[in-house]
Amino acid sequence: MIRFEKVAVRFPGGVTALHELDLEIPKGQFAVLVGASGSGKTTALRLVNRLQDASSGRVLVDGVDVQERDPIELRRSIGYAIQGVGLIAHMSVAENVALVPRLKGASPEEQRAIARAGLARVRMPPDQFLDRYPHELSGGQRQRVGLARAMAADPDLVLLDEPFGALDNVVREEIQDEFKEILGGLHKTIVLVTHDMHEAIHMGERILVMNAGRLVADGTPEEVVLRPKDEFVRKLLGRRRRELENYVKELRG
Amino acid sequence: MSTDRSFWGYFAANHAEIGRLTLEHCAMVGAAMALGVLVGVPLGILLTRKRRLAPLILGTTTTLQTIPSVALLGLLMLLPVVGGIGIRPAITALFLYSLLAIVENTFAGIEQVHRPTVDAGRGMGMTDAQILTFIELPQALPIIVAGVRISAVVCVATATVASYIGAGGLGDLIFRGVGRANNAMVAWGALPAIALSLIVHKALSAFEARLKEGPAGDYRRVLKWIGTLSAAALLGFGLWAAGLGGTDTVVIGSKPFTESELVGEMVAQLAEASGAQVERKFYMGGTVCFESVKGGTMDAYVEYTGTGLMSHLGLPAMTESARVYAKVKREYAQRWDLDWLAPLGFNNTYAMAMRRDEAERRGIAKLSDLRGRKLRCGFDEVFADRPDGYKGMLARGLSFCASVKQMNSGLMYQAVAKRETDVIDAYATDGRIVSLDLKILEDDLGFFPPYDAAVLVGPKLFRKAPGLREKLEELAGSIDDSEMARLNAEVDSKKRRAAEVAREFLTGKGLLQRAAQTGGPESP
Ligand SMILES: Nc1ncnc2c1ncn2[C@@H]1O[C@H](COP(=O)(O)OP(=O)(O)OP(=O)(O)O)[C@@H](O)[C@H]1O
Ligand SMILES: [Mg+2]
User: Strands, DSSP E only, in B343-389?
Assistant: First the structure.
């Protein structure tokens, strides 16, 4: 589904955000990119929907080099949600959720129906929320609307960049559970970016650990947490290593 | 009907005109602002896309802003299409002034849009145009509206200056009122302008607050609404302006003082009587009149031979009336294809004036009678030092001042009337000579250069108004100094309308039929 072939990204000013990254994420997999701040997670994600162009190498989606696709059409076929959600403040919840279908030319009635279905999917009673505005929602509700928006056009591939970043811990775990449930049932390819190892273990089937623009670990949560090969991964697990190990065992249990 | 000097009296007598000028003012500002929005907002957007242009475009709009309005109007007068005189250059100037705030605020408004939102929009597959209309413009709207508000308020105030080039609007009342020391007239020009500013400010502030308050309401509809409104304002204005004065309309001008308006009014009424469509451009700057006739945007106004000789032609003073007239007539025809018709009869030159009883008591009637006297002199700010003033007199051995007090011309007339001074310098046709019963000393020495008034005519006037030539020939020579001073006094002291006084004069001379109602807007 997604393939990175020796992809490097160098920013003007000398920062190399990615060093020749090779990676493959098969269809239907829930992959989590995890790593410290500045390790290149967002950059890697944005390569997929062409918000970022590679300096060298190729990125393929469904076997086609993204450079050969029309960026607008490519992006509309991929769900995308970012930290702080990026909801449009002057649009109602309904308008936000149905944005991509609208861009694709859905009629107002279709948009309304899509918004209803989308809200229902993220467990928000449509009648209560359709006509609210983002500032009239709680942080968790906003995240859910953001997710509903990313899924509205029923994309096969969904990119989520720290979608829980703005939430406090209690709410975060609740929403994580919910998202896991919602997303788990959909059989979509999902790439989620986070810097929180706990979240990665909790959500992902596959964990990709990044450090300074390189992939330093790749495997199931058990493989990555219980048998860390890399010095950096050990450091990333840090003082919480014991706790995370127990958590993985518990999840598997 | 005499116009009242009191505040409410003036309003009662002139509310129709105040209303018309207010509408004219609104039309001018509305058209300029519509243009400003239609050009300024896209320019601001362009800047956010092509940042390299920012120094150039912002630099240009800032520079435009620093040009004093009178200077900008003066420059525009010389340009074709967007310039000339009347409402078009006024709109051009106001439009140019409006740009800075609109461009700058559009730019700043879009710059401050929350970047992650734009990024999310792009990530969802919005095109550049969709990002602009779905995200950037709606979020920048309160700041853009603030820019429009700032521009509009400045525009309402600046539009008063446009009267200087004959654009009409409330400035007409202010300029005319200042010229006639009629405070009620000034107030009725200034107050509606202030009220307009406040209304525009309040309305747009409220709109802005409403936009900032929250996202309720459909922003795209608001944007469309603003665009449509601007386009409609411009279109409506275009139709209105196109309806104004076709090419056959005769444009008659006047300089910014009562006497010029009175004789301009006479020319205008005679042109109307000869069947022409007339547009009056009164109370314009002196050079504006001259440049306009030269440029073909005005057909006639009344000029003074001395001004023509010294200011326009830049030639040295001459004292003999007939020679000055012959000189300007020949030079203007050669240089600019303009014609000086035969002089009207009065000579608005400097003159020495005294109280009539005082002059008689002392036995002074002529300039030469002053020689060797010891009088208390009151002169205006420039007269004492001019070669054609007291300094020149001294050079010719004509000394008569025991003391010289310098004062402004208003005080000067007061002072001589109250016997605080004995002799003053005056304009020979000033209305106050009549109202204060002063005596003008005859210039038997040929000292003062002549300022004979005559109609200065552009090449197209008589083609547009074929019957007018004979009428103007009849008018020539029919107004002497004291008659002109009397007419000036009717307007300045008795506060009558110039149009009415002019009509009365023309009817009295048999130049207009009593019954013949001349059309055209009245001018107080
Ligand atoms: N537009 C850019 N221009 C220059 N450097 C950039 C740009 N975007 C990112 N970088 C740099 O590239 C590196 C990787 O950035 P990236 O945003 O991918 O990190 P990240 O792993 O998502 O970090 P975080 O967890 O803080 O979001 C960083 O050093 C960052 O400073
Ligand atoms: Mg990031």
Answer: 350-355, 375-379
